[in-house]
UniProtKB/TrEMBL annotation:
Residues 3-185 form the Calcineurin-like phosphoesterase domain. This is Metallophosphoesterase. Belongs to the cyclic nucleotide phosphodiesterase class-III family. Keywords: Hydrolase, Iron, Metal-binding. InterPro entries: Calcineurin-like_PHP, CNP_phosphodiesterase-III, Metallo-depent_PP-like. GO terms for molecular function: hydrolase activity; metal ion binding. PANTHER family: CYCLIC NUCLEOTIDE PHOSPHODIESTERASE CBUA0032-RELATED (PTHR42988:SF2), PHOSPHOHYDROLASE (PTHR42988). It comes from the Archaea.
Length: 247
């Protein structure tokens, strides 16, 4: 059986753009998949306020998975929401290990600005966490897109230290980066490091004709990445052999 990972992003619960029925459909699909790991790369709320966190907590509890990596986005950090995030969803920097998969998630948001930033002070944590199990399949997760994606007009909000961060991740031979923010689902392959952006899973804030979607990843001897859209379509984005003896 492959290890099954769901990657969701930008659900914006409690915003005027949130579509509850669509979210419930997504949760039903996810629970049918029975994922081993769920990663949510931020923007759970719209303004980071208490009532939104309460609602987001209720909605996210509908997802049945023991291994969740939930990160804040720029919207969640507004209005001192970063404090509420910790109360409702735990640390803003965290590591999860499941079998031979290591997921390191780091908060890339800053209070009341939309720009992304990881910062040099977080690099030792990232390096140490991945070096604990160097032969694992290594996943780094954050909210902001580390490389520009199409259909966004004028580029903005890429982490201010994206170049240095990518250098750190490249040296660690990270297998995959999971991110969101721009509501554009996309996949880049950078030095064999997959950079996978999730679209918005459950809001009307889409771009052009792109529909809402989330990512489904299977890992065994092969890495398979699917995009599952709200129109019911499932696209395979990648299917490639993993050259690691231990998996
Ligand atoms: Fe965002």
């Amino acid at each position: 059986m492959p290890i099954k990972i769901i990657h969701l992003s930008d659900i914006h619960i409690a915003s005027p753009y949130f579509i509850p029925d669509m979210y419930d459909d997504v949760v039903r699909e996810i629970n049918d998949i029975e994922p081993d790991i769920v990663v949510i790369t931020g923007d759970l709320t719209n303004e980071g306020r208490l009532s939104e966190y309460e609602e987001a907590s209720r909605y996210i509890k509908k997802i049945k998975c023991k291994n969740m990596v939930i990160l804040p986005g720029n919207h969640d950090t507004r209005n001192a929401g970063y404090l509420l995030f910790e109360e409702y969803f735990g640390e803003r920097i965290k590591t999860l290990r499941y079998k031979n998969i290591t997921v390191v998630g780091v908060d890339s948001s800053e209070p009341d600005i939309d720009d992304g930033h990881i910062g040099r002070d977080k690099y030792p944590y990232i390096i140490d966490s991945f070096n604990q199990n160097k032969d694992d399949f290594k996943i780094f997760a954050l909210h902001h897109h580390v490389i520009p994606v199409p259909l966004c007009g004028r580029e903005r909000n890429v982490p201010t230290d994206a170049g240095d961060l990518l250098d750190v991740l490249d040296r660690l031979k990270i297998d995959m980066i999971l991110c969101g923010h721009r509501h554009v689902p996309w996949l880049w392959n950078l030095n064999d490091m997959i950079v996978l952006n999730a679209g918005t899973a459950s809001t009307s804030r889409t771009k052009g004709k792109i529909s809402q979607s989330y990512n489904y990843i299977e890992i065994d001897d092969f890495l398979k990445i699917y995009r599952i859209s709200s129109n019911g379509e499932k696209y395979i984005l990648l299917n490639r052999k993993i050259y690691k003896d231990e998996l």
